[in-house]
Amino acid sequence: MESKETKLHQEVSSLAILESEIRKLQYRQDALIEVLHIAQNLFSYLSKETLRYVAKQLKLPYSKVQGVATFYHLFRLQPPAEHTCIVCTGTACYVKGAYRLLETVESWSGLQEGHISEDSKISLRSVRCLEPCGIAPVVVIDGKVRGHETPEKLLQELKGWFVNVKDRS
Ligand code: FES
Which ligand 1 atom is nearest residue 92's CA? Predict the structure, then answer.
């Protein structure tokens, strides 16, 4: 677990990088989306403070910057969850039972697809085609691709997360 001091140091360096990237882009207002991408890569998500900072640097109204960040799904406005389960619901995975995987996790955990658990620890999402269709149905658990997934195997994997969450609370 990183210390508060380390985290603060990282944030200060990320802010310095963001400032330098904005300068390279000559504070152009039409580079807003590019700047938001850079900011998200640096901070993992776009906090209100980051959006305010971008608005100030590009001399844009905060409402405009927030509007763009909210409009595009690829921008995250909340910190990422500690654990992520992504179920592919593309055609090949759908045919091989992707929805059974999703339903099993949803009904077992009470966490709905597209949501993050109340304690911000677990995120459950679906996407359309992750590409390795030959091993459908595919899930990605904490960045690790798993093929030929079954509801039983998936629950087995996820139960550990929920146990850990309970242990910490
Ligand atoms: S449809 Fe799921 S990996 Fe392509």
Answer: 1
